[in-house]
Amino acid sequence: MKSLPLFLLLFVTTALNAQSPAYNPQVNLLDVQHYRFSLTLKDDTDRIEGSAEIKLHFKQSSNAFFLDLVKNKAGKGMEVSNVTLENKPLTFSHQDERLNITLPQASPAGQELNIVVQYAGVPADGLIIDANKFGDRTFFGDNWPNRAHHWLPCVDHPSDKASVEFLVTAPDHYQVVSNGIQIEETNLDGGLRRTHWKETAPLPMKVAVIGVAPFAVQLAGEVQGIPVSTWVFTDNREAGFIDYSQAVEVLEWFHTNIAPYPYRKLANVQSKTRYGGMENASNIFYFENSVNGKKEREDLIAHEIAHQWFGNTASEANWYHVWLSEGFATYCTDLYMEAKYGQEMLAERMREERFAVIQYAARRKAPIVDTTVANLNALLNTNSYQKGAWVLHMLRREIGDENFWKGIRAYYQRYKESNALTADLQRVMEEASGKSLQAFFKQWVFRAGHPELKVTYRFDGGENIVEIFVEQLQNSPFSFPLDIQLLDENKKVILEKTLSINKAREEFAFPIQGYPKEIKLDPGAWLLFK
Ligand SMILES: [Zn+2]
């Protein structure tokens, strides 16, 4: 996702997460294969009625397990009426955020079970039920990071992926958009309509949602037979159709340059997400003020489309490695903008991202993978986004364009429909480049901060020698290549070198023609430094 500017986020409250962010204990016990959620939505109440058919695969023998589901407290949350296995009731207890279920006998390892959970309640979070800015009532799933279990019983962790279908019954003045393809839309008696969407690719629950509103819908285009559609609020019909049509060109670029698009359609949806954009699988939600008819959201669209590969399909194995989603989406956007607008656009974007990283580091000293963070939303920080992008950018410099692209594609191919940690990315990149990247990943991903440089030079006119002194001011030295240029009084480059820096203080001497007046560090924007 992409965060909104900070002043908007101040109004957002964050639910307390009872789980350890690192992993959900259920993922060792079972693996959900498929969810089929049937939901009834109404106009006169925010109470939803749900039925979840869940196909479970047991990895270990057990007669008990739990699903994540927030229990009703003070009128908000879900109340479970029954849990069944082959139409026979199961014993369950529901406390706080856990629905504990007991089986009549232990399920052996390898067994698959289909259970059904019937429940109802007013979602405290996760499904945003609210009027849009035009006063129309809307419903939007907004699950990141683990807010799905406010409205859906599930294993709410990105390492357990499952195919998902939603059958929504709602008043017929709404349209419903969701993951996958629409397989039914039927008007029912009583002014109701049933809409059924089904995704066959396994998804992490963070990106499995519905969007329900009076929409204006347009087919914006197709990419290799994949329909790209726009879903905007009816009052934003004209402007929204213009703005979101940019997704066609963006999808084409990623489809061509990363790998075939992993889903069967792409819907771009104006929504009530709390984020700037939320990369729901094949069903991207953008914040409601993203529409103005001026096509000003190209990089937001590119960011969310990049997530369809990185984050949704190749996903972080736990939240601490969320830079594998956000750093990738940020840098893939930079790559798209570079391809479309040229190298100087890339350098400009990298300078802006570097500025953000330096500002952030001044406030908070932490590595990208920071296991001290307790509030998952705090992981949506500059380290995960901009510094993550900078890691990929410097990795590209380290191993060269060809190996970098080879590695990025290989990483996706190996971890698509699966999960990865930073060490997995490192391994793939080492294979692609034939180079050890241990020190690179250690210093940029697992260590806080960045080089803080003081670079001076001394010119001896008699000998035509220039001496360059590089000092790293931070605690312990980083290793990196530093590009420098010396310019004369006419701004002409009279010396251009790449210095290999490994120590706290280093000196270099070069013969030079001309009289240096100025030294430029990192003219191409390839190094994260201050
Ligand atoms: Zn993102």
What would you say this structure looks like, in words?
The chain has three domains: about 5-10 and about 25-305, Immunoglobulin-like, CATH 2.60.40.1730; about 315-445, Neutral Protease Domain 2 (Neutral Protease, domain 2), CATH 1.10.390; about 455-520, Sandwich (Immunoglobulin-like). It is elongated and about 95 Å long. The longest helix is centred in the middle third of the chain and has 21 residues, at about 345-365. With about 525 residues, it is an alpha+beta fold. The protein contains eleven helices and 28 strands. Strands 5-4-8-2-1-11-14-13 form an eight-stranded mixed beta sheet. The model is unreliable at about 5-20 (pLDDT under 50). The chain has helices at about 5-10, 25-30, 235-245, 245-255, 300-305, 325-340, 345-365, 385-400, 400-415, 420-435, 440-445, and strands at about 30-40, 50-60, 60-70, 75-85, 90, 90-95, 100-105, 110-120, 125-130, 135-140, 160-170, 175-180, 180-190, 190-205, 210-215, 215-225, 225-235, 265-270, 275-280, 285, 315, 420, 455-460, 465-470, 480-485, 495-500, 505-510, 520. Zinc ion binds near residues 1 and 307. Zinc ion binds near residues 1, 279, 326 and 329. One of its GO terms (molecular function) is zinc ion binding. One of its GO terms (biological process) is proteolysis. It is an enzyme of class 3 (hydrolase). Belongs to the peptidase M1 family. It comes from Haliscomenobacter hydrossis (strain ATCC 27775 / DSM 1100 / LMG 10767 / O).
